[in-house]
Each structure stands twice: as C-alpha cells, then as structure tokens.
Write a structure and sequence with these properties.
Layout (H helix, E strand, L loop, with lengths): L1 H17 L4 H7 L2 E7 L4 E2 L5 E9 L4 E12 L2 E11 L3 E9 L7 H4 L5 E5 L7 E2 L2 E2 L6 E2 L5 E7 L16 E5 L17 E5 L8 H12 L3 E4 L5 H4 L9 E10 L15 E9 L4 E6 L2 E9 L2 E6 L14 H10 L15 H8 L14 H26 L5 H25 L3 E11 L2 E11 L4 E8 L6 E3 L13 E3 L4 E9 L4 E11 L4 E8 L2 E8 L5 E8 L2 E8 L4 E7 L21 H21 L6 E6 L7 E3 L4 E11 L3 E3 L2 E6 L4 E8 L2 E4 L7 E4 L2 E8 L9 E9 L5 E7 L4 E4 L7 E5 L13 E8 L6 E3 L2 E8 L2
Parallel strand pairs: 1-9, 2-10, 11-12, 11-13, 13-14, 14-19, 20-34, 27-35
Antiparallel strand pairs: 1-3, 3-6, 4-5, 4-7, 5-23, 7-8, 15-16, 17-18, 18-19, 20-21, 21-26, 22-25, 22-33, 23-26, 24-25, 27-28, 28-31, 29-30, 29-32, 32-34, 36-47, 37-40, 38-39, 39-46, 40-45, 41-44, 41-47, 42-43, 42-45
Keywords: Membrane, Signal, Transmembrane, Transmembrane helix
InterPro entries: Class_I_gatase-like (IPR029062)
C-alpha cells in the first residue's frame, strides 16, 4: 500500500512539473499586437534620426509595461529607447518615438534578430513577454546620393514640377500636420523642409521647437511667402529673414534664368516687409526682395516673397530649373558629405571617443619592479635564512616564505588597483565651437564600474544626443547595452548591467548655452603676435592657444575673468583658418597629452572642416572641468575631464614686404555649374574632393588683409592632376576663359610678364574651372597653388 501511495505521489509531482504554469501569462501577452511605421512614407536615411510611429493593440485584459526599441545607426554603435505602454482591455494606442538611426549594415539587421522587445511592468525587471506583430524595424533606405525634401503644404499636388530636378538628386515626401515630429532628432532624415501655404502656428509648441532646433543643427528651411507671415509661421516667424506684412505686384522675369523667349510669366504676387538682422537679399524683382537668405545656427533659411505653389508658377514647365538654382544657395550639394566617405559615427569613435576609454592608474615602472624582485630575493634567501638559523626556527620556512609572497602580492595588487576599488570613475572629453552664444560640438563619456551592477548617467535635457559604442559587444540583448531615457529636466543613459571593472562608452553631438566668450585685442606683424585676451567664460582654462594653419601657439593659462598679455612668435606670413594634419598616433606616455592631441585633430575634422568657412584663426582653450553637467546617479563617481572650446578671433594683421601664399593661406570654395560635390577636404592637408562628372568653378580667395592694399604679384604656380579633368583659368579683364596646358609636369605658370594682376578680381578672387569627365570616378585631386608677390607702400 505504501508503495502504491509513493508511486501516486511521484506520478502527480511529475504531471505538475510538466504543466506549463506560465501559460496564462503568455496567452495574455499574445493578445497584444505591435505595428511600427518608420520615417516619412516609410523611408529613412542610413544612420540618421527618424520618427517611429508605434501602434499597440490589446485584445485581452489590462496591460502595463514597456517596449524597448533597439537602434543601430552604424555597425559599431547603438542603444535602446524605452516606450511606456499603458493599454486598457480591448484598446489600441499610438506612440511616437525619435530613433537616432538604423542601418542594414548591422548584423542584427541582416541576421533578422528581434530589435523590439515587450516587457511586463518595469523593463528593468526583465520580464519579457511575447507579442504578435513587428519584431524589427524594416524601413526603405533612401539612396545615399539623394537629398530628401520634406513638404508641409496644403497644395502639395501643385508642387509636382519640383519632384524631379534637372541637376540635383532629390526625393520629395509629403508631411502632414499629424506627421510633424516632436523631436528635432526625428527630422534628420530630411535635408530640406519646404513650407508653403501651411499654418505652422497650428502645430504644437513641441513640433515648432523641433523644426527650429533641426534648422539650427544644420537643416535647410525654404519658406514660401504669405500675407500674414506672423500668424502662419508661429514661433518660426522670429527667425525668418523677411517679416512680411504687405503685398504688391512684381516683375517675374527674375525667374527666367534660362532666358526663354517664350517665358509665360509677366508678374507675381509679392509679399513685402522688413528684412531681419543678418538677412541677405539673393534676388530682386525690381527693387523688391524676391528671395532672401539667413543663417540660423549651422542651418540656412531661404525665404521667397511669393508662394511656391500658386498658379501659374507651379505649372510652369521650367519651374524645376529655377528651384534647382535656389537649392544651390543652400549649399545642398554638401549636405550629402558622407556619400562616399566612411560612416561619421564610426569615424568619430576611432578619431575621438576611443581615446576617452583610457583611465589614469597607478602602475610600477620596470625599475621599481626589478627593485621589488631583488629585495624579495634578498629578503627571502640570505636574510631570512640567517634570522631563522639564529633563532633555530628553520623548520618554519614552509609557511613564512609563502606568507611573505602573499603579502607582497596583495600590496602590489592594492597599489595597482586602488583607483578602481573605491568609487566608479567617469572620463569626459568634448570639443566645441562657440556659435551665436551656443557651444556646439561632440561629447564622449566613458563609465568605469567598480563593481558589477546597473549604472545611470544623467545630463541636462537636449544637451547631449549619445549612442553607445558596441565595439566590444557581441550580444543583441538590450539589457546588456544602453537605454536612452528622456525625462522632464534631465535625460539619462541607463546601463542595466556592467561587469566588474568594465567600461561603457557613449558619445555623440552635444550643445550648451554659452554665457561667455574671449575678448581679444591681438596684432600680428613680422611674425610677432602681441596684445591681450580676456576670459569672459565661466571656465578656467588650463592653456589657451592661437590656432592658425596647423600651428597651435601657446598663449598661457587664463582663469575666468582674467586678462592675459600676449607676446608670441608665429612662424607664418599670415594668420589663417586652422586645420590639422590628422592624428597619426602618439608615443606620449602622458594620457592627457595624448587626449589633447586627439581633441585638436577631431575638432579640425568634425567642426572646422564642416562648419568653419572664414579664413581666420581661432582661439582654442583647453579646460579640465566639465562643459555639460554629466554625472552618475546613485553613485559618487571620480571624474576626469578634458575639453576644448574654439572661438573665432580677428587679429589685426599688418602685412609688409614679400610674401608667399600657399593652399593653407587661401580660402577656396566650389561654385557648381553642373554636377554635385559630395565631399571637400580642401581645408585640410588632403587637398582632395569627391565630385560627380560635371562643370565647376573653383574659387580661391586671397586673404582679406590684402584687399585694398597695394601689392604686386610676381608668380602664380598651379600643380594639378589632369586625369579626367580639363582646367581653364578666368581672365578678369578680358572676361574670358583660358585653357590651362598641363603638358609640362602637370603644372601651370603665370609670371609677372603675363600681367598676373589681370587674373585677380577686385574682391581678390582667382577662378579655376573644372570640366570633369572621369567615367563616374568621384575622386579629384585639387590643385596645389603658390602665389608670390610683395606688398608695396
């Protein structure tokens, strides 16, 4: 009997083990369906931010939890975004979230790994549940060479003539009012936003702010004319270059750029008003501004005094030709600067963020280690032997020697690990340029754990847009990466699990309101720089430099509120825009010196080459305090900070006597006649560009200090590669192009007898024309130029 009872109990226990007790929860979770819609019209740009619309449907009971949406803008960077999900029984809701970017190059994409995860309750508890629907984001990727024009207009169909442009590769997408994102990050997949006959004021404050911040970050706004601009454009009205309040009729002939004899338009309805500060008139109808331009942060605003969608303009067959020319004023050709280049975020990691992962530590030199080993041998062998023999305790050797070895090992370990045993550590590096009372640049933060567990890093809202380096990560598990959480005042990066003594790095664009500047009064004459610099920033600078060309001239430390006197030698004929020869590695033993070298190199690559077009030097201040208030929550970390702030300065330059100008003394720019510029490295030592086949004017600008002075030019020498390109030079006086013969060593000379001055305009411009036909090979070696002459009294 007892045996039967025992068998029955075992059988019942086995049945209970086989029964799936979690089945009811799983069944409930399966009642949830998730659908996602990425970008605009389902299209996104690789590695660029976009809006993600999430539709959650619940056909079961009440559900409360989170979605974690993973993103990978590059192969080696990523993270996850949490979305709070509250779904009553038998309901559905829509959510919008800004995704920093995705790419099909990441292995989670082509291995079809799930990147959308549903959790019941708090995602930190890790209670993942199953659901129906989309498990990944699968957008349509926009061709890398295409510029995307988003259109906000109630007359979208009337802009059909602009959907295909003769010279620019573009895609046009219609954005409806409810599709306008609430985050500037979501607009990154757009290159241009065209607004015409659309009430921006009807958008929410968040949506209007997102548009303004997107422009300031480098976007291009084309604003069509309207009679009530202050009412139509809402908060954007204050940043427009033309504040219209009246209307009139105007001559439309300025649109006829092709000089068509059968041009059908006689006049246009024009809206007039006051020009804003820093606005430039590009085109006029008679004396009335027709097209105006203004910079806003790093972006551009183009505004027309007429509606872009009104008839008969919108149905004019050559409308796209004129619009194509308009886009050239936005420098849209350089928007696709990464077309053939390496991925920007990956390059930013290797050129900048990677070095931030080096932490200071206590270490022993080879000499100290040899001394310790020698002392150990002397202590253990002869001294210990004589002591024990004298005490007649030689039999105790078996435990004394291992004990001494253990104590020494513990001491060596403690000295080497003391920096990691106490508190967690945080390295911060950043480089910024001062622009319209804002510091804009890039920041890197590396967290070094002192124990295994979760760590949270917080920073002021909208000041930092990080991604996590996944360089040393092999898992697609979101709870082992970084979760980017947006809060009311401070955003956060949460690392759910960092291993013992491991490091995690996040990096990306950053900005900070600046309440200061450098007040400089500098003079440069005969290789000597003199004057004063006052520090009006709220920071103490460990070292201040004048950065001209590839030289960083030390001026000394300067604390906040202090003024320093400057007297320094500069080995150059002119003070020019800064550049770097790139970071070629360092043999520095000092970590801070190595990091500082990397800061200057990265600042040149990612800030100066991209946004700084003036041929002026800069002041560069190195500081060892944070620019952005980034800190750990729930931990008292030890911080190591190294940052660089760059600001344009305008030193007085007194030029006398003979001079020699080379590439680094001259500003240069492309004027596109036909084609597209994908990347231009003229401002660095590479002196290269990536160009489509076509026609370009390459314009050299003499230093502004020479304009209006008496000078004589003795020689102009151009050396260039003739592969696939025919060159000609513009004769200013004769108003004609002269072919350049490169049959002799790929070089071209003009001597004093050739009347060199007649090739230079009154504005100090020398123009070289490129006619490029290299069968689609974009690589172009730009000319090396040498100009010799003398400034005369």
């Amino acid at each position: 009997m007892r045996k039967r009872v025992k068998i029955a109990i075992i059988t019942l226990f086995t049945v209970l083990l086989c029964f799936n007790w979690t089945q009811p929860a799983a069944a409930s979770a399966e009642k949830i369906k998730i659908s996602v819609d990425a970008g605009f019209d389902g299209k996104v740009k690789r590695g660029e931010g976009f809006p993600l619309k999430i539709t959650a449907e619940n056909s079961g009971g009440d559900f409360s939890g989170y979605l974690l949406v993973e993103f990978y803008p590059t192969y080696n960077a990523g993270g996850a975004v949490p979305v709070k999900i509250e779904l009553p029984a038998n309901s559905s809701k829509e959510f919008e979230v800004a995704i920093p970017g995705v790419t099909e190059d990441h292995q989670s994409y082509y291995q079809n790994e799930p990147t959308i995860h549903l959790y019941k309750g708090d995602w930190r508890d890790g209670k993942a549940v199953a659901y129906k629907g989309d498990k990944t984001i699968k957008p349509k990727f926009i061709d890398m060479g295409d510029n995307v024009i988003g259109v906000l207009s109630v007359q979208y169909d009337r802009l059909k003539e602009l959907r295909v442009l003769p010279k620019a590769q573009t895609q046009m997408v219609h954005i409806k009012e409810e599709q306008v994102p609430k985050h500037a990050l979501s607009l990154q997949s757009l290159d241009v936003l065209l607004i015409d006959k659309f009430a921006v004021s009807a958008l929410s404050e968040e949506q209007q702010t997102a548009i303004s911040e997107w422009i300031a970050g480098g976007g291009v706004l084309i604003a069509g004319g309207t009679p009530n601009a202050s009412q139509f454009y809402g908060s954007l009205y204050s940043i427009l270059p033309l504040h219209t309040n009246n209307e009139t009729k105007g001559d439309a002939s300025f649109l006829n750029i092709n000089k068509d004899k059968d041009f059908p338009l006689k006049e246009l309805q024009l809206f007039t008003g006051d020009l804003g500060k820093d606005a430039a008139v590009l085109t006029e109808s008679g004396e009335t501004p027709a097209v105006v331009k203004k910079a806003h942060g790093q972006g551009i605003i183009l505004q027309t005094a007429f509606s872009l969608g009104d008839e008969p303009l919108s149905s004019w067959p050559n409308y796209s030709d004129w619009f194509d020319e308009l886009l050239k004023h936005a420098d849209i050709s350089n928007i696709t600067s990464g077309y053939y280049g390496s991925d920007m975020l990956d390059q930013l990691y290797w050129d900048f963020a990677e070095v931030n992962e080096y932490f200071p530590s206590s270490s022993f030199s080879i000499g100290v280690l040899i001394a310790l080993l020698t002392g150990y041998i002397i202590l253990v062998v002869p001294i210990l032997y004589f002591i024990l023999r004298k005490l007649d305790k030689r039999e105790q050797t078996w435990w004394i020697i291992p004990s001494i070895s253990l104590v020494m090992a513990v001491v060596i370990f403690a000295i080497g690990a003391k920096d990691r045993l106490g508190n967690p550590q945080m390295n911060q590096m950043g480089f910024y340029i001062q622009d319209q009372q804002q510091l804009k640049g890039y920041q890197s933060v590396t967290t070094l754990a002192n124990k295994q567990g979760a760590y949270t890093v917080s920073y002021p809202k909208n000041e930092f847009t990080p991604v996590m380096s996944t360089m040393n990560t092999t898992s697609f598990e979101p709870l082992r990466g970084a979760v980017m959480e947006n809060k009311t005042k401070r955003d956060r990066v949460i690392f759910p699990s960092i291993e013992y003594w491991s490091a995690k790095t996040v990096y990306g664009p950053a900005q900070h309101e600046s309440a200061g500047s450098f007040k400089a009064d500098l003079t440069f004459k005969n290789g000597q720089l003199t004057g004063t610099v006052e520090n009006l920033y709220g920071y103490d600078f460990a070292e201040l430099y004048l950065w001209t060309g590839n030289r960083q001239v030390k001026l000394g430390p300067v604390n906040k509120g202090e003024t320093i006197s400057v007297k320094a030698e500069v080995k150059s004929s002119f003070l020019t825009r800064p550049y770097s020869n790139g970071y070629g590695g360092s043999n520095q033993q000092d970590i801070n010196e190595m990091k500082q070298e990397r800061l200057f190199s990265a600042a040149s690559t990612f800030l100066l080459d991209q946004t700084y077009k003036d041929n002026k030097p800069v002041l560069a201040g190195v500081l060892t305090e944070p620019v952005i208030d980034i800190k750990m929550e729930d931990n008292k970390e030890k911080q190591h900070n190294l940052n660089l702030i760059i600001e344009k300065t305008d030193a007085k330059q007194e030029i006398t006597g003979k001079f020699t100008l080379k590439n680094d003394h001259l500003n240069a720019r492309f004027k596109i006649i036909d084609g597209q510029v994908h990347e231009d490295w003229y401002s660095t030592a590479n002196n290269e560009a990536l160009l489509d086949d076509g026609e370009y004017d390459y314009i050299y600008q003499l230093p502004t200090e020479m304009i209006g002075k008496n000078y004589r030019l003795d020689e102009i020498k151009l050396t260039m590669n003739s592969y696939g390109v025919k060159y000609s030079i513009y004769h200013q006086r004769e108003n004609e192009w002269i072919d350049i013969d490169l049959s002799k060593n790929n070089s071209f000379h003009l001597k004093e007898k050739d009347s060199i001055d007649e090739y230079i305009s009154e504005k100090g411009e020398l123009i070289i024309k490129f006619n490029k036909n290299s069968n689609g090979d974009p690589y172009t070696q730009l000319p090396n130029i040498t100009i010799k002459g003398e400034v005369t009294p």
